[in-house]
Specification:
The structure is a homotetramer of 294-residue chains.
Chain A (H helix, E strand, L loop, with lengths): L7 H4 L13 H8 L7 E3 L18 E6 L1 H5 L9 E3 L1 E6 L7 E3 L4 E3 L12 E2 L2 E2 L10 E9 H5 L9 E2 L1 H7 L7 E5 L3 H6 L1 H4 L5 E2 L1 H9 L4 E4 L21 H9 L2 E4 L4 H6 L3 E6 L9 E3 L3 E3 L1
Parallel strand pairs in A: 9-11, 10-12, 11-13, 13-14
Antiparallel strand pairs in A: 1-17, 2-4, 5-14, 5-16, 7-8, 9-15, 15-17
GO biological process, one term (chains A, B, C, D): L-tryptophan catabolic process to kynurenine
GO molecular function, one term (chains A, B, C, D): arylformamidase activity
Protein name (chains A, B, C, D): Kynurenine formamidase
Chain lengths: 294, 294, 294, 294
């Protein structure tokens, strides 16, 4: 049903939401039925310095512009006694913290997903396919806990998850969110150097398997959906690059650097998945705190 | 039932989540029943320069570190042809964009909500009551569309919403989110100067009415929950300050600078309210894109 | 001698320093002779929020990442007792603080000064004519204190300084720095709105007069060398635009937003002018603290 | 003559400039006589990502907010054809690029240099001893090219330069700038890991020798004036810590992370040293491009 390159026939040349268009009200209502206990889990890592990230990426920086220590040291309160803390955040989301990729994040040639001219992504931000187009995601989440399925703590760095392996674990359908665990974030605490030695991820066959099933979003706990070699690059050629298969050719939004350890411990295989990317105008991504309603 | 100052008896001295503790799985499941059509609305304003904000606050800044124009102008693709866009965001959320306040954002004296020492909020961030403690919010949202109730486009700047007026509009109960519309963001497009001439907001009586009902969150489309005078300060004394009543004394998280115009157009009075603040460690707030599932 | 457009015949197609090439060792030694008392004056405004700037430009932001208040409030010192303060600066120099423009800052058509392709100024920074090419400026400064010459506190906003007026005030020669006072920064403290009502500056004839004299740098206390109308734009067409005449066509570096009030009070007409722009690789400008050695 | 701790008797409790007070007009004029050829050398490293820095420090970030690639890709020029490039810089100067330390940068106990309360250094910046107090430095620079003196390319990481060794190389007097080369920046290009394995620097005896001679500034090409161990900390106790001896007890401004290789190649032993720190209000440091006029 889906064809490469680019899914133009389907959503048309003006589409900037890709497979998020599949999130109809009907599907949202159906998805809510996946909630059983009502427990809400955060699936993101903390936004802070010192956490898992791709080597060389600028870490999030957080500054306090006024804080409690200032008042303790004698700074005068506002008005009759009001005290407050204020801060600023600097964040480059890709490769540094849990985030959703916008459809403008990656492409080949001169066109973004669905034929939008790549030159419209310039210093003023993305005029097409920016993250502000994504809106909210409320969908059934299907959990592919690959290391648990294989009896491992985490996948080894050279492991590539095939479409057949996904097929073995669970069915997933149109408008659903495929949540894929590699366990790789566990490695960071043991050793950042080991974390940077490569990363497990999806094989091209898994990307095609997911695209064929019309998932709304692919969300993983690794840094690049696909695997990485020790130079932090993918080994696939352009035809098989995971970002190009999913984001560029099929308009599938991607979520990366999830934290899925508590979710894994629940043993749940599906749940309500909610993600609300910031409406950062022209942004290539948004830092994100996806929720699982169990 | 609730008493001022501070709600210590209730959640105990180590509590950092305040009334978000009311979001039990049972309540979450009940809240999901408020979804009727499954339509998902974003309740946030875009994150960008030039939008409604408090005068003098640093606007969000968004920079592209690589973009499509670079490739169009001859920058070499990665590897065999991969092209990408990457960016950075600088944001001070208070007063500049839709956000949730952490419990460490405001206080009087030397203690935050529930007795945490204010000096623990220092340049390394908030060691207590930071926004990373909030977790996800999934609750029934109750809509107080005040101007619609009064037959106005938006409230005038000096208007203060009383507890009696809220009572007149809708009941709200424990663990629910009170979503309050003033319509004030509509003024921005007409004139930033008029936007800065003051702001409508809650009167102290409304803050107390909401606290008594044990709402989980108070969320409004103005900049400060309470009203503002032309100097952008509140006219209430400390006893009646809305942030102190709600955030400081009762541990009620606040969401500000919402965009509620589409929600108002639906005529809906309740819905599922979802908010997923970034787990910004030690943060005093998180930029936010709250969702209404209708 | 100099011809428009662009001064290619003179410094050749690879030149990235423009008239700074005139700063030979011989001229530097001669310039040092202008020092009489040895007093050193800073000619810059403070880098901070709240100072004179063009409307709408992002102000400098300064954050402390650790400070004395933190230690006063109980933060543990480093090692056996060392305490320190550290900070971060975010600055967009144009229009916000004293700075030197790089030769890549402005152009018409597809080429920078001296034929460098403008497309080489991209998201990775300027590959040609970045501010890191400027190096240090040590030259004789010639002071054109225009309001003092005319018996005014400051020039009115619509005032345009002609070449004839400069000629009347002082001679200036090759490799010297023309320091031009309008007094406009004095207006800021009276009223930012008045400051933004327009700005006095050089007329095109003054730009040509300076270019003909082969000055090394033109340095002024207004925001744009040329004058500005109330919309903060120049009224000149491209042929007469001051940045294009000086920076683009003749390779003259520009310094803007100086603070010249103490210098004016000295009554000095020449001095040693020193400027040391940060070697910000690929930068379009550097914040700057120029010195006058009197 | 000088006494520890703190030099209060000398400049008095309100002094915020320390030994920069020694830069009298008379001394400045005398210093200018050190210029022989008039050649001007920049003594700073480029401000950019990827250069020598202390491990873990946030690197400078440079963003273009509009650039030539945007116009090449179709962005509309301003007005009738004006094109421009604009940018932003984020910089934490300590440990990342050439900079001057303010007197508020380091202390022990509760007081900065000369008795100023350390609590006055808070989130709004340093109210005392900020870098904006430094003003410009024009002084005779005395070059201590230690590796050249010892016949080495660079000092080994565990090398500590004693006062006796400085004495052997050159005399230095009141109000002069001691410029000290270790050659350590050369190691960066060979291997960042080796650069981080430790750093050569001054021994406490050298700090005392310099303080006794009343130098105005101590400027070095290493990261911390003193040496560093592989954990990037100094091995000295508080009594012998170089920052405390020089900056804290004697009010001597420090300049770090210089690039002295071209200066070394000239064989010059003295010159005019000029430094013009940005007047960053309340700043703990300023990025810097010191000049040597040969």
């Amino acid at each position: 049903m889906v064809t490469e390159p680019n899914n133009w026939g389907r959503f048309g040349p003006e589409d900037q939401r890709g497979t998020l268009n599949l999130l109809t009200g009907e599907r949202v209502l159906a998805a809510l039925a996946a909630a059983v206990t009502g427990q809400v889990l955060c699936l993101s890592m903390p936004v802070r310095r010192g956490g898992p990230r791709l080597r060389g990426r600028p870490e999030p920086q957080h500054f306090m512009s006024i804080d409690g220590a200032d008042f303790a040291a004698g700074t005068r309160p506002v008005g009759a006694g009001l005290r407050m803390a204020d801060d600023a955040l600097i964040v480059s989301a890709h490769g540094t913290t849990t985030h959703m990729d916008a459809l403008c994040h990656m492409w080949e040639g001169d066109q973004l997903y669905n034929g939008h001219p790549a030159a419209q992504v310039h210093s003023y931000g993305a005029k097409r396919c920016g993250i502000e187009q994504a809106g909210g995601v409320v969908a059934r989440g299907v959990f592919f806990d690959v290391p648990r399925h294989l009896g491992l703590d985490h996948l080894p760095p050279e492991f590539r998850i095939s479409g057949d392996l996904l097929e073995e674990i669970a069915p997933v359908g149109p408008g659903e969110v495929a949540v894929i665990r590699t366990g790789w974030p566990l490695v960071w605490d043991r050793s950042p150097e080991e974390y940077w030695s490569g990363q497990p991820g999806l094989a091209a066959s898994a990307g095609r398997w997911l695209a064929e099933r019309d998932v709304a979003v692919v969300a993983a706990d690794n840094a690049a959906i696909g695997g990485l070699n020790p130079r932090q690059l993918s080994d696939e050629d352009l035809a098989d690059d995971l970002h190009l298969i999913l984001l560029h050719r099929h308009g599938v939004h991607l979520i990366e650097l999830l934290w899925l350890e508590e979710l894994s411990a629940t043993g749940r295989s599906d749940f309500v998945f909610v993600a609300a990317p910031l409406r950062l105008q022209g942004g290539t991504a948004s830092p994100l705190n996806p929720l699982a309603i169990l």
